[in-house]
Amino acid sequence: MIILPKNLINLSLKKNFFYIVYILTFLLIYLRTEILFGSDVIAPYTDDFYYYLVTAKNFIELGFPTFDTINLTNGFQPLWFLLIVLLTYILGDGIIFNSTIFLVIGSISLLVFFESKKYLIKQGYSEDASLFISSFISFLTLFFSKGGMEIALVNYFIILSLSSSNKKPLIFGVFLFLTLLSRLDAIWIITFLLLNYIIINYKKNLFGLILFPLLTLSYIIFNYFFFGSFIPDSGVAKSLNKTLTFNPETFNFLYIQDSYGYKFISILFFLNTAGILFLFFKVKRECYIFIFSIIIFFITHSLRSSWKLWDWHFYYFSFSTPFILYELLKIFKNHLRYFYYCTGIFFVVTFSFLLFKDYGLSNDHMLNLSKKISNYYKNQNNYNIFAMGDMAGKVAFLLKKPVIQLEGLVSGNLIIEMIDKQKSLCDIFEKFNVDVYLTNTVVKNNLNFEVFEPAQAGKNGKKVLAFIKGEPEQIFNSENLIVYSFNFKKNNSCIGY
């Protein structure tokens, strides 16, 4: 009979604990997302995911990337878009596709755990510390990816880049570039990963690092040549102001009271803010990398964009938070395994609570409105072109008719240019022969309705405005969320502002 050493048995139990709680968390989120059954099954992911999916379907059908079937767009993160194109081509857009997307997200988030743990062990972290940090990174990756966005992919390439700090510069450069293609606003993490690589390897031949800027320059030139802009439409549309002005909308998430997700993100934010103090002490190198990245991310976003941040934008916290917590808890280094256990239990308990709290509720109000709009207009063949700003993703997906996206996120250069020059919204309607305009933001002004786009842009953001004459054809609502429908073929007309 072979008797295993006690430390090997304990290690096996610790690893098995992670696998159990991770699978449970994955299944709980999967069920809560209502991919298999429930009121959300037709479109279970966040609205922005459907900018990807509609554009991918049009790309397959028409041969070029377009959200509205009219305007060429690059308003997406390239690698995630290509993956969605491939899966859509093979699986269509139903339950199997949605399940596969979630399985991909869960699998990549698990790979993040393996790569993180392997890296941490090589860097001399203890087994307990490695399990605690890597499991927390993995859970946060899954949390920020659950809406169908590309966060698992970018986090995977971030950890691969960090793990390549001692490898040849060509390999490191390739991983940096894949990180960039996964999500372009990872540029600040990429910057500090690059600085870290140079500091570690300054005595070596670093000529191979030139590959990263060359690849990046090629991507920028490609964008400009094919799409007419150096960066994706979504990045351009959110940064139209030419002057640096503080935009408080960056921190709007701190005031959202009716979302457990944003309350959790607010806690992470305060923890990371407190973690800035570690910059004045000797801590692990990784802590410096991710804290500096967080600082620059929030400063630059608040100065260049008046748009608020959505939950997936906070993926920077996936790495900074576990390393900050590790530094805080180092004094309990002999008890880190208990914090590791608590991390897994926290996510299982939290998503169990959320699953049963929301079970049977039809509380995706964007989807509810999209269904109502689609049911009303889908079979009316005399309406061919729609226009909408916020919430256009699910509406376009269910309506299956061209929807001009009025925020500029996936609408090409022409609309972005019109927003930048603050033209009348009527000019857009006329240019694209819009039949029906859908909006959730109106101001009644005597007999007219004042409307503006993009409604999500803050007070410093550029907007196109107009007055709509006549009452809305329809008013669609789901709880407190309302969408007004103006029909230019019937009783509505647009008046320049």
Q: Could you describe the 3D structure shown?
A:
The protein has 497 residues and is of the alpha+beta class. It folds into two domains: 312 residues, no CATH class; 132 residues, no CATH class. The chain contains 18 helices and nine strands. The protein has a five-stranded mixed sheet, with helices on one face. It has a four-stranded antiparallel sheet with strand order 4-5-6-9, with helices on one face. Helix 4 runs antiparallel to helix 5. The longest helix has 28 residues. It is globular, with a radius of gyration of 24 Å.
Reconstruct the topology from this structure:
Elements: H1 6-32, H2 49-62, H3 78-91, H4 95-122, H5 127-145, H6 151-163, H7 169-182, H8 187-201, H9 211-227, H10 233-237, H11 260-275, H12 285-304, H13 317-329, H14 336-358, H15 365-377, E1 386-388, H16 392-399, E2 403-405, H17 412-420, H18 425-431, E3 436-439, E4 442-445, E5 448-453, E6 464-469, E7 474-478, E8 481-487, E9 493-496
Parallel strand pairs: 1-2, 1-3
Antiparallel strand pairs: 3-8, 4-5, 5-6, 6-9, 7-8
Helix run count: 18
Q: Major sheet: size, sense and barrel closure?
A: 5 strands, mixed
Total strands = 9
Radius of gyration: 24 Å
Give the quaternary arrangement of the chains.
single chain
C-alpha geometry: globular
Global structural class? alpha+beta
Strand content: 5-15%
> What is the domain total for the residues?
2
Helix content: 55-70%
Q: Which stretches are low in confidence, meaning pLDDT under 50 for 5 or more residues running?
A: none
* Elements, N to C (H/E): HHHHHHHHHHHHHHHEHEHHEEEEEEE
Task: Report the average pLDDT across residues.
Answer: 93
End-to-end separation: 86 Å
The order of strands across the largest sheet is 2-1-3-8-7
